[in-house]
Give the backbone structure.
Amino acid sequence: MVTRRLILLLAAGSLLSAQPVTRVLFIGNSYTYYNNLPEIFSKVAASGGHPVETFMIAPGSTTLGQNLENKETRGALENGKWDFVVLQEQSLLGTAVYVDGLPRVDSDGSFERAAESWIGAIRGAGAKPVLYLTWARRDSPEDQAALNHYYFEAARSERGDWDALVAPVGIAWDHVRKESSIPLFQPDGSHPLPPGSYLAACTLYATIFDRDPAGLPAKITGIPVDLKTEKPQGDSDAVLVDLPADQAAILQSAAWKAVRESRQSTRWELPERTSTPMPDPSDAPVDEKSFAGDWLGKIYFFPSGPSDMTFYMMQMGKGWRVHFTLKHHAKGVPDESLDLVETAVVGDRIMFTDPKCLALNKSPVHFSAYLTASGEMWGSAEASVERPGSPDAKLSGHFRLTRAK
């Protein structure tokens, strides 16, 4: 029996060694280097009978457009003789759009243009492009539909056929989040824990090799990545993933399910973005006196989280004194207290501006507010913040104030 088992093991090893090595280049950022996704992928692929060699270029927060301009990255593509090149865009598609303080997925067209350029360059180098469709952040799961739309549209040619494979990692994450309690997110609600990277590796395996990842090993050892340097730690060895068998089976199933679903769907529609429901304004006549008094409450606008807001309006002779404060309760985010000059009532609304908001690098924030039938003050805030070398950040949010007693 021992001799027969040894013969079977030798035969299996011989069969594996006879398989051609698949060379895969990973281009991305932290969603790629966290937990060393290429290493996990190569180990699960080898266990599935597909020996793989990988190389990774993934500077933190880098967009595909920035990687496109990187000589090292282009050189790696042109000189590597790759079979597949995996492309991972920045998690918000390179934009900085915040709604009610939460970062949201949006596109200004730069992702699509960069993906098109990369796909052409990869095919020109004799390799197959793979778009690594990422996941929505923990606090905005509704963004997954937008990610699906942008990635699948980027993979489609003008003729309507497919220019690139799409590894639907985010769709697999969505299934796991809805159907299990397996933790996928780091505490920051963005980056992957080891089970999340394992799920990504299984999805890439299913996409590239067209194989069900069921039965792949649940424990993976390999070279870890130093999160400070963003580089693999040389010849060191560590446990990258160690899952209970039942959890590994759930992740494998979700990966295969996502791949099959994505192949059956021809279009992924871009959903309309919903905003916070705002109550109807009061029917009572409105003038400046209606807003007089002390108001306090919360504003949902700043990336640092909900902030305390107060608004004070008092008549003084023929004019008004208007005072405004913001308390952020966040380290490194300065509070504000200022007298407002440009304040106006137009129709049923009061409008005012914080001309140099300290929490937003002295960018102006424009406010508009109205009174509800219940006597509350509801309003919106809008701002645009310059980012050198990148598109401006766009922020929108709302606040709700009640009269101070």
The longest helix spans residues 245-264. The longest strand covers residues 390-403.
